Amino acid sequence: MDREINIIGGGISGLACAIILCQNDYKVNVYEKGSYIGKRFNEDWQGLENWSEKIDVLKQVESYGIDLSFEYEPLSELVIHYSGKLKTIRGKNACYLVRRGGTEGCLDKALFEQAEKLGVKIHLNYKQENNLPAQVNAKGPRNANILARGIKFNTNLDCGYHMAFGKDIARGFYSYLLVKNGHGTIATVFGRKSAPRSEEFLKNTINYFSDFLDEKELSAGKKFGGYGRFEIKKNYYDEKGTMFIGEAGGFQDYLWGFGMRYAFQSANLAARSIIENESYNDLIKEHLLKKLKHSKRNRLISEIMGSLMYPIIYYTFTSSKNPLQFLNMCYK
């Protein structure tokens, strides 16, 4: 049996898969086109969701043999906004905030360091991946259908976590403001069809959250863009037998856009497929496909209801005694 594995892409899923395989005595090479790991991101805060399954996501990640050596903050209180209304909802460890990028404390950097320490060979600035015989494709999304526009800034503001709905700030999705330990991220998330309006959405989002912002701090910040892709594939192997993991496989929530949990899960399933010689398609069908289909259903309902969806989401969250339980039910 060939004990050498090639993985294309050094994001969360690629590095997680490499770590798991290396711990099972495989020789692993990761080929990353960027000049450093985490280059796609800007040290901005992102959410690692913890509501779609009963097991805590950090315990799940640890069960794969991955160290929690990155900065994370449990989010148990979130201010929900809609059309000038706001209400704080609570739920223990509803989500974990992590920073993405190539600096100390960021998730990407921590995975890189663990992989290197284990002996994974990481090849940066690699441009010829199409000619490389690889077992795992973790190259990230192509033909993005979910986009983000935001600003990362330093701030003296108190910590706070806000999510807002509205067609003028994020058509079909949401906007958010996260402030933690002197770092702030404000962003708007929207579909590809609304891409020409990205600056308008960002400006409207900033105006909406103006009471919670310091204008000087924000103007000194750095703008960024993000992208992702959700997709349900018929086959999670390509024509060469390479497995798609993470966003390369379209593993991202259709309704909210969260994808990091899927990145870890699909990485683990690909590693299991290699180690135990199981069908990757069968593993995806058993462990992830149902949840993906339900998130797609949630997105279709949202699009059919149009602007009526915003008040429904707001009032459902703010009136529920257990918002996390409601969210969990949406994936069953």
From TrEMBL:
<dbReference type="InterPro" id="IPR050407">
    <property type="entry name" value="Geranylgeranyl_reductase"/>
</dbReference>
<dbReference type="Pfam" id="PF13450">
    <property type="entry name" value="NAD_binding_8"/>
</dbReference>
<protein>
    <recommendedName>
        <fullName>NAD(P)/FAD-dependent oxidoreductase</fullName>
    </recommendedName>
</protein>
<dbReference type="InterPro" id="IPR036188">
    <property type="entry name" value="FAD/NAD-bd_sf"/>
</dbReference>
